[in-house]
Design brief:
Elements (H helix, E strand, L loop, with lengths): L8 H22 L6 E17 L10 E17 L2 E12 L9 E13 L6 E11 L6 E11 L8 E10 L13 E11 L3 E12 L10 E16 L2 E14 L13 E13 L4 E10 L14 E12 L3 E12 L7 E12 L2 E12 L5 E12 L6 E14 L7 E16 L2 E15 L5 E14 L2 E14 L6 E14 L3 E15 L4 E17 L33 H10 L6 E3 L2 E5 L10 E8 L2 E10 L6 H19 L4 E5 L6 H7 L3 E8 L2 E6 L9 E7 L17
Antiparallel strand pairs: 1-2, 1-26, 2-3, 3-4, 4-5, 5-6, 6-7, 7-8, 8-9, 9-10, 10-11, 11-12, 12-13, 13-14, 14-15, 15-16, 16-17, 17-18, 18-19, 19-20, 20-21, 21-22, 22-23, 23-24, 24-25, 25-26, 27-28, 28-29, 29-30, 30-34, 31-32, 32-33, 33-34
Length: 722
């Protein structure tokens, strides 16, 4: 029988307005005092959009001038190191359909945090937008509601934490309907320096049914016990991690809504990774989730059993080789499971990266039966005549073993070179490039030619980034449509301590044959003003921070060990001690080919941006595969984010806009899809997310810098790292 919602929608809207009013009214009361610090920014922006020709192929649905004003307010008061009030208000006065589907005042993030550590039971209380993380398999989601962290029984040898969560999984305050997806949860964590970390977790979720969508009322519970500890065995240190979870309740169903009612399933996870005196690393991982294991707040794939074996060896001068065997079974619990067996070899070092693997994929009924081979090579060429060059080679072959099913073969070569430029007080880098791709298949035969040109330049407060690309797509099949696309992207920034003025120009010209051409462009300008008001006297100029050794971390190298202000020489020596050497050098930039997140086979690089012998930004660049789909990219993003929260704890700030759809990659390029997570540190801020880039590449970046632009300014990528 269908159950009624907890609250009707008018009541929900009134509660949201009441919450916002209480939030705003509480701020002046709480801010009464001379120790409050207020900071933030205000961004006014206007864009002009125009389309000529075939508007059905244009990237813009609306033409004309559209404007909006973003407001970001942060306030905090710290009576002592253990007594803190902190809050954030972020929203927009919107007049642009590209910025939000709602017009007028749109609150996007509200948060109020209270920390009290000088009492018998230290606590942290959050209200508004909170990020709740128990484990990857139970709850990892942003919520609108409340979160309480109590830390009783504190001692020098053992820490305890009790986390209580109540909130709705919603993307908007203007359209806030808690009964659509509401969570209540609790987690109890024990952290012992000898016996490790262990947690008990419980999450309860309810979701309202909708007749128009054919869904029923759903409620579900997830219980789990998780733990991790480092165990010394001889000269080996082995990190053991595991979790056992139980799911019971309802989900959307696999064969109609009724098929998802009153289901039970278990989830298992175990991983052992270690190293010793030899430069040998190894990792074994096993996880299994039944077909009915579908927690709403988790980030796992139901019906999956995965077994993985990894082994690596580190050679002198920064080279690392790693082999892997991965055995996956998808669609478990159905009559037609799919098995994927992967054998791979990866080499990373100063000369570049090499990754080769083969996959055998077969379903139980043999409607899917193929062998896929991939070779991906990126070579950093020796510096010649002040040019840094690189060559990339990609080869993929899909050999179908199903009768009367054709094979597909892809060959790609990309060449690029960069050269430092200096003229009229400007310094930067110019990078021409070229991509040639050939696809051979009976229905997908094609030839793509893609020359590119990129430029970055800075002079004092001024900076310019430019990207030019021509893509010639020739379809070598009967009836195929050839398409030529020219794109221009220009970004100018004038940056001071209090002001940021920017101008952007984006144009695209698409010419199909046969077909009508499309000419589109956008011109935008914005001004951001940073304000800060505090009664506390400003401290004098601090000495440059020194490089500190990172604490225990699941990362192969933690960029938190190289904060902004670190001496460049000390940072280079620290990397050398970890056998990370041989960077590609450009003026003000060093880039190292290495692996930071061990369990990912994506290309990864460490970048150091420096000036006058001091590091300004340290970063990890994680490239996405050119053939990756949105769901695959987000699975990698969620796993990396989980690893970072295990390393740094819950985030200080986060911001999310947009949903995962087939158009997600285009939404990233237009700035309408945003994922940002930040951790505050005394020397600056660590930020992880998926930034927008002028060249259109989609990748993840982890940066440690003194500060970052507001959430809405999506061009925060290290454009100089390509």
């Amino acid at each position: 029988m269908k159950r009624a919602p907890i609250l009707d929608r008018p009541t929900q809207e009134r509660l949201v307005l009441l919450f916002i009013m209480l939030f705003i009214l509480f701020f002046p009361y709480a801010a009464a005092g001379e120790e409050w610090q207020i900071s933030g920014s205000n961004t006014m922006r206007s864009d002009y959009y125009d389309v000529k020709g075939d508007d059905t192929q244009a990237p813009y649905n609306y033409e004309g001038v559209y404007s909006y004003n973003e407001i970001n307010l942060n306030f905090s008061r710290r009576a002592n190191p253990y007594d803190l009030w902190r809050g954030e208000i972020f929203g927009v006065v919107n007049g642009s359909p590209y910025r939000s589907s709602d017009y007028g005042l749109v609150p996007e993030k509200l948060n109020l945090t209270r920390e009290k550590g000088d009492v018998a039971v230290p606590y942290r209380v959050e209200m508004g937008d909170v990020y709740s993380y128990f484990t990857y398999r139970t709850l990892q989601s942003s919520l609108k509601g409340f979160q309480v962290d109590l830390q009783p029984f504190q001692s020098a040898k053992r820490r305890h934490s009790i986390m209580l969560v109540s909130g709705a999984q919603q993307s908007s305050w203007r359209h806030f309907y808690p009964s659509d997806s509401y969570f209540n949860g609790a987690s109890y964590l024990i952290d012992d320096p000898k016996y490790g970390k262990y947690s008990l977790n419980y999450v309860y979720n309810t979701r309202q049914g909708d007749d128009s969508m054919g869904t029923l009322w759903r409620s579900q519970s997830v219980y789990s016990i998780a733990g991790s500890n480092t165990i010394p065995i001889g000269d080996q240190k082995i990190l053991m991690e595991g979790e056992i979870s139980q799911y019971h309740g309802d989900h959307d169903g696999t064969a109609g809504a009724e098929s998802g009612q009153a289901r039970s399933e278990k989830g298992y996870f175990f991983q052992a990774s270690g190293k010793g005196k030899l430069p040998l690393t190894y990792r074994f991982r096993y996880e299994e989730y039944g077909a009915e294991y579908r927690p709403t707040g988790a980030s796992i794939t139901p019906g999956l059993r995965a077994t993985e074996y990894h082994m690596g060896w580190t050679f002198p001068k920064g080279y690392q080789v790693r082999g892997r065997v991965q055995d996956f079974r998808n669609n478990m619990g159905t009559i037609n499971p799919v098995d994927t067996l992967t054998y791979g070899l990866n080499l990373t070092g100063p000369l570049g990266t090499f990754d080769a693997f083969t996959q055998d994929i077969r379903s139980n009924d043999r409607t899917t039966y193929s062998e896929n081979s991939t070779l991906n090579l990126n070579i950093n060429l020796p510096r010649y005549a002040d040019w840094n060059g690189s060559v990339g080679i990609l080869y993929q072959k899909l050999h179908n073993r199903v009768p009367d099913t054709p094979d597909t073969e892809t060959k790609q070569v990309n060449i690029s070179a960069s050269h430092a430029i200096a003229a009229w007080g400007w310094n930067g880098t110019i990078t021409p490039g070229f991509v040639l791709r050939r696809i051979d298949g009976p229905v997908s035969k094609a030839l793509d030619i893609n020359p590119t040109l990129s430029l970055t330049a800075k002079s004092g407060f001024h900076s310019i980034d430019y990207s030019l690309a021509w893509l010639d797509q020739t379809r070598l099949v009967t009836g195929g449509v050839d398409v030529g696309t020219l794109t221009n992207n220009l970004s100018y920034r004038y940056t001071t301590k209090k002001h940021l003025f920017g101008v952007e120009y984006v144009s695209g010209y698409r010419t199909p044959d046969p077909g009508r051409s499309t000419d589109s462009y956008k011109i935008g300008a914005f001004w951001t003003y940073y304000f800060e008001k505090t009664i506390v006297a400003e401290a004098g100029a601090a000495e440059p921070a020194s490089v500190q050794a990172a604490g225990p971390s699941p990362l192969n190298f933690d960029i938190a060990a190289i904060p902004p202000g670190s001496k460049l020489d000390a940072a280079i020596e620290l990397l050398k001690k970890r056998n990370i050497t041989g960077p590609v050098e450009e003026p003000g930039l060093m880039v190292y080919e290495t692996r930071v997140f061990e369990e990912f086979d994506l290309r990864q690089r460490i970048a150091l941006v420096y000036k006058n012998g001091l590091v300004r930004t340290s970063a990890v660049i994680i490239d996405t595969d050119a053939t990756s789909r949105p769901q695959e990219i987000m699975q990698s993003y969620e796993k990396i984010r989980s690893t970072l929260m295990d390393t740094y704890g819950r985030p200080s700030d986060f911001f999310e806009r947009g949903t995962v759809t087939p158009r997600m990659l285009d939404d990233i390029r237009t700035g309408t899809f945003i994922r940002i997570m930040e951790w505050k540190r005394p020397q600056g801020t660590i930020r992880f997310g998926i930034p927008r880039r002028l060249d259109g590449k989609v990748r993840m970046e982890l940066q440690f810098a003194e500060g970052f632009p507001p959430y809405g300014e999506t061009l925060w990528s290290l454009e100089e790292v390509r």
